[in-house]
């Protein structure tokens, strides 16, 4: 069982709409679920993993409803973002306990296999209290893998990891994807998703904003209108010269800031145009700063596009 279908799914908490009419399909390989904080990624993952019921719509795995379906739970492993671990347990005890919960025939052997997969044998008999953040993450991962699920869901798995741990986890997730499993991980960092995911789903403010490979998502982000704040030795002359070019969509003189607010449509064209025009007219550029580069603004452009 490998294909998760999210069909017109919404989830609200009181009057907060965390997920708003999202439809997407997640198949084998590694998929990145990208979006700023509060976009609804955890809520979506919890619904995909059967931890949370959708308020509307359906989540199915190869056609079978996920919510309250034990048959389906057998195929899903989930690594939540925050999970209380019993610090006095060792990783081995923690993973064996989960194997027992799954009713596996040989919990010891299954736990040993899962701990080997995440390369945690060296510390498996130490209490979790003595682990680094990355080691805890790996213990959680072993616990999620103990029943050999075909679908693995991870909520912000790279948070708080050092570069070496990050590489290690990337390698592991890549391998699992190559084996034909469905691996989905959430992140708010495009570069992280880019390095690992062959497919990206973007969510913003509870809504599905875009999907495609990283080239497509990158292009959507660079092709959006860019806003700059520019200060120069002659703002009026600069504005007149820039507006004559097609890559400049709008210019406003901001008296308070004593600067130009420029909206460019063609990112590459504009970054070439601005210094050239300034040079040709003998205008000195004092400040050139992007004024809307927050992740939220980049993503919300995708939603309104
Ligand atoms: N149990 C809950 N009760 C009330 N509101 C909730 C609950 N869970 C999530 N929300 C709200 O739903 C929205 C989406 O939250 P969610 O945690 O799914 O986003 P996220 O993309 O995972 O963000 P983060 O990366 O910050 O965890 C937020 O506004 C959040 O405050």
Automatic annotation (TrEMBL):
Keywords: ATP-binding, Nucleotide-binding, Transport. GO terms for molecular function: ATP binding; ATP hydrolysis activity. SMART domains: AAA. Residues 4-230 form the ABC transporter domain. Belongs to the ABC transporter superfamily. PANTHER family: ABC TRANSPORTER RELATED, ABC TRANSPORTER, ATP-BINDING PROTEIN. This is ABC-2 type transport system ATP-binding protein. It comes from Actinacidiphila glaucinigra.
